[in-house]
């Protein structure tokens, strides 16, 4: 399962690199050993994207490696002479904007996905905020993936309001999951066909609050033998998560599937989708689950509450509160009618407001300066 940044990059590259679009697309990536990335880059090359790896990219600040990455970015931009540079996420977004500004790129667009000051505290939060303000003055537009992110950015005074553009994430709408399709998916995943399956798809990193999901699952498992849990994803906390599953005695009831390239096709195996994040931008996993007609239980943080109207197309619970999450899930477990009602409303909401074609069209208009 690729994270939201990679998913958005893939969607944009596929769209803009179409022969009829008239664009020549080049992409600069840092390889941090994330599962599936190299395969995605090979696919991008097959679609005509000029892909180049940049040494030195990493999440933490390292002046030597960051300086090397910055020089490599400038060298590529001077060679390619792009009309538009679109940067993504914190580290690549900061270095990329500075490099593009130094190379006098006419249009510099940045999508933060999640601002680093959303999760930082104290002096670190102030430091990241100042870096974002500095970099914001060196780009043409900042794309906020949702209205709540735009409200946060303007409230924090990142830059003048005219530099912001809200383009909400969008997804395609799949065909409804048939009973035959669900049964096939459960056989593939070695899940009981008659179980009630609660799933979560997330990178196993602190942001996703996976511990809350695990504690919630343990509470429910004690009270209801019908329920089986699925966790799809990998990341730096995978070893800790596996150990925690063993400690909770959940190895037979919670299936940790690791990274799956086909994660987007597996929502149909679930009855309920959970996301226990501590902070978000506008999470693709919820959009995809909603588009598949799943009822959602998610933590009430920036981004998720923009997608989920509590009690209408899902349920929102306080971040870190496993007890309330379990109580909300138990209500849905006991009520097939509620699951059907929330799932139908979720699908209709995505169809109406979060369509992939609108997302792609708005980005291309931004690139063209419309």
Commentary on this structure:
- The protein has 370 residues and is an alpha/beta fold.
- It has 2 domains: 181 residues, Glycogen Phosphorylase B (Rossmann fold, 3-Layer(aba) Sandwich), CATH 3.40.50; 175 residues, Glycogen Phosphorylase B (Rossmann fold).
- It is 45% helix and 15% strand.
- It is built from 14 helices and 12 strands.
- The strands form 3 sheets. Strands 9-8-7-10-11-12 form a 6-stranded parallel sheet, sandwiched between helices. A 4-stranded parallel sheet has the order 3-4-5-6. It has a two-stranded parallel sheet with strand order 1-2.
- α8 crosses α12.
- The radius of gyration is 21 Å and the shape is globular.
- The model has no long low-confidence stretch (mean pLDDT 93).
Quick rundown:
By secondary structure, the chain is α/β, with parallel strands linked by helices. 45% of the residues lie in helices and 15% in strands.
Q: What number of structural domains do the residues give?
A: 2
- CATH T-level fold name of the largest domain: Rossmann fold
Poorly predicted runs of 5 or more residues? none
What's the mean pLDDT score? 93
Strand content: 5-15%
User: How many separate helices?
Assistant: 14
Give the helix proportion (percent range). 40-55%
Shape, per Cα inertia axes = globular
Spatial ordering of strands, largest sheet: 9-8-7-10-11-12
Radius of gyration: 21 Å
Give the end-to-end Cα distance, rounded to a whole number of Å. Answer: 34 Å
Largest sheet: 6 strands, parallel
* Corresponding CATH architecture of the largest domain: 3-Layer(aba) Sandwich
Task: Give the SSE string.
Answer: HEHEHEHEHEHEHEHEHEEHEHEHHH
CATH superfamily of the largest domain: Glycogen Phosphorylase B
